[in-house]
Design a protein that fits this description.
Blueprint lengths: L7 H7 L11 E5 L4 H12 L3 E5 L3 H13 L4 E3 L7 H14 L5 E4 L14 H29 L3 E6 L12 H21 L4 E8 L5 H7 L2 H9 L9 H11 L11 E4 L12 E2 L10 E2 L4
Parallel strand pairs: 1-2, 1-4, 2-3, 4-5, 5-6, 6-7
Antiparallel strand pairs: 8-9
Helix pairs in contact: 2-9, 4-5, 5-6
Length: 292
């Protein structure tokens, strides 16, 4: 059997940039006032999309919107608390009235706090579930319904974490809620395929953001994290942004139900232990793993 391999030029075309692929299309980014969300909104705009950005922090959202408009992007900014079903309904009503269509969505807004589960107040547990899982569901459902109305299909990328599949000590509430997001994304991918709506999951490792700053600003913790990252650096928001845009583009048109680990190889040998305790001592304190 003869196999005709693509030429070098054809290979380049197969892996071509997504620039321009989103012309005439609309992309929604949640949690857009955060580092990853803002970077992804900018990446969608650079790829030609009209961008809808949302976050519960209206002032910070306005700053992101102004920055995008200064670069010539078409932007609709709409503040929304994704744990509130009425607020989410208002967001999609605004998209329907303003943009008139929705083609891509990056569900990114999230919440996470460190602490042992035994000491975790229930309101903190509930906030993790409300923001990450319930909010993710409301946003995904609203996006899918609007895509269905348009009759053109679409793509949704959901931001989870490597903690969705690995034990992450002292981040148990976050990990549990993100594990729920993981199964939500897979279930949506299966059910929405009949409407030609693709759903994929992004699973970042340690990314340099305001959320991780309190941990990785510790020189010893940073050194430990780098020592456990085969690519030799920590992730940047733009790393996630490029992946989200790709997964929502036509270049990934045959990809759905996938979960993409983007962690610089941190999980190749299991999950790095950012915190640890001496199990031989009952009641031992949990400390950053880099400390003796």
């Amino acid at each position: 059997m003869q196999v005709n391999l693509p030429s070098q030029g054809q290979r380049g075309h197969l892996m071509s940039d997504v620039t321009g692929q989103f012309g005439g299309r609309t992309a929604l980014v949640t949690g857009a006032a955060g580092d990853i969300g803002a970077a992804t909104a900018a990446a969608f705009a650079e790829a030609g999309a009209a961008v809808v950005i949302t976050d519960r922090r209206e002032d910070a959202l306005d700053v992101v919107a102004e920055g995008l408009r200064a670069k010539g992007a078409q932007v609709l900014a709409h503040a929304c608390d994704q744990t509130d079903p009425e607020a989410v309904a208002g967001l999609f009503a605004a998209i329907r009235a303003g943009a008139g269509r929705l083609d891509a969505t990056f569900i990114n807004a999230g919440y996470g706090r460190y602490g042992p589960l035994i000491d975790l107040p229930f309101d903190q547990w509930r906030k993790h579930v409300d923001v990450n899982l319930n909010g993710g569901f409301l946003m995904a459902q609203g996006a899918a319904r609007l895509m269905l109305e348009g009759g053109r299909g679409g793509a949704i990328a959901m931001n989870a974490s490597t903690a969705a599949t690995h034990i992450c000590d002292l981040l148990g509430a976050y990990a549990a809620s993100k594990a729920g997001v993981r199964m939500l994304a897979k279930s949506l991918a299966s059910e929405l395929g009949v409407w030609r709506i693709r759903v994929n999951l992004i699973m970042p490792g340690v990314i340099e953001t305001a959320m991780t700053k309190s941990l990785i600003d510790d020189p010893a913790v940073r050194a430990d994290a780098l020592a456990n990252t085969p690519v030799g650096r920590l992730g940047e928001p733009e790393d996630i942004a490029r992946l989200a845009v790709f997964l929502c583009s036509e270049a990934a048109g045959y990809v759905t139900g996938a979960e993409v680990m983007i962690d610089g190889g941190q999980t190749l040998h299991g999950y790095p232990r950012w915190f640890s305790a001496d199990y031989s001592r009952e009641g031992a304190d949990w400390l950053p793993h880099s400390q003796p």
